[in-house]
Amino acid sequence: MDNKGPAKIVIVFPTLNEASAMGEVLDRVKQAMVGYNCQVLVVDGHSVDGTDKIAADKGATVVYQKGKGYGNALKTGFVYARKQLGAKILVMLDADMTYDPKFIPKLVDPIISDKADMVVGNRFAGMKQGAMPFVNRIGNRMLSFVAKLALGLNIFDTQSGMRAFRSDFLDSMKLEAVGMPFAMEMLAEAHSAKARMCEVPVTYSARVGETKLNPIKDGGRILGVTVRLMFDIRPLLFFGSIGTVLGAVGLLLHYLLMPSEFVYIMFPFLFMFGGLSLSLIGFVMYLIQQIRTRN
Asked: How far is CA 88 from CA 66, 91, 198, 268, in A?
């Protein structure tokens, strides 16, 4: 890669048996990044098809995962790129030809010009026919909608695997997920750290090779992580939502069970009291969060 440019860019590829596309992807990266101070880092999950050898032959730095999972591979790459390669800007990209490397400059240029801290590639702006199954497309839209409501993320494609960000934001992000929920967690943590985020349109094509994504299993995990992040980042909304539901159930029971007996009177009020208590807990946690942020 060329060594011109104001900032060291490291493109991180998490790989596991991607030999069928690895060579062409790296050739396209080289073409796209002419004029940039850029290096490619491949984090390999101990492929058995020669993915790592192809990457090394193409000039990429190759390191091996100690753990398992998409998120674990990216975290390994991010830490190595920053500490060992001196990365100032990190780019994450899949090695299966779904994303076209020619769009990498569109992701890094807003960061280089200090107009953004994180840039996400929006796949739905250039989704090619047959690139994503209908179920996956609906699932992605739903997850992005939930993330906007629950976490306040103004990102249309929260599950995009093509994004760039300033490497120093790693200090502000608490990244724990090891699998596919990592993508959502990263956005939520960046948003919580007040990162300036934007999206740019990219194309999305059918993958080369066998998919490793389980839509139902991974979708459930992503929703679970979203709920956890909502608890951490927006406690008032988290507890307030549950409290409101309990309060509404209590009022409904009070209306339906109004006649007489003590047990029928107390049961609805327990729901309403529980709802009020949870809302107060959320409010207190919100105040604590605001005080910590100001300090």
From this structure: 24, 10, 18, 57
Q: Please check whether residues 185 and 277 belong to one and the same domain.
A: no
Joined tokens for residue 40: 């490619």
List helix spans (H) across 84-214: 104-112, 134-151, 182-192
Domain region containing 277:
235-294
pLDDT tens figures, 165-211: 999 988 888 777 655 577 878 888 888 888 899 999 999 998 775 65
Residue 56 sits in the same domain as residue 186: yes
Residue type, 131: A
Do 215 and 91 have their domain in common?
A: yes
**In a 3-state reduction of DSSP, which class is residue 43?**
strand
Distance CA 85, CA 220 (A): 35
Is residue 27 located within the same domain as residue 43? yes
Residues 22 and 125 in one domain: yes
The angle, 0 to 180 degrees and rounded to 10, between the axes of the packed helices 182-192 and 215-233 is 20
Q: What is the pLDDT of residues 213-238, one digit of tens each?
A: 555 554 565 555 555 555 555 655 65
Q: Select from 222, 236, 228 the least CA-distant residue to 282.
A: 236
The answer to whether 15 and 74 are in contact (CB under 8 A) is: no
Q: What stretches of the chain adopt beta strand conformation (E)?
A: 9-15, 38-44, 61-64, 89-92, 118-127, 163-166, 197-204
Measured from the Cβ of residue 129, the count of other Cβ atoms closer than 10 Å reads 7
Q: Using alpha carbons only, what angle is made at residue 234 by residues 253 and 230, rounded to the nearest 5 degrees?
A: 80
Number of domains present in the structure of the chain: 2
pTM of the model: 0.72
Q: What's residue 207's pLDDT?
A: 75
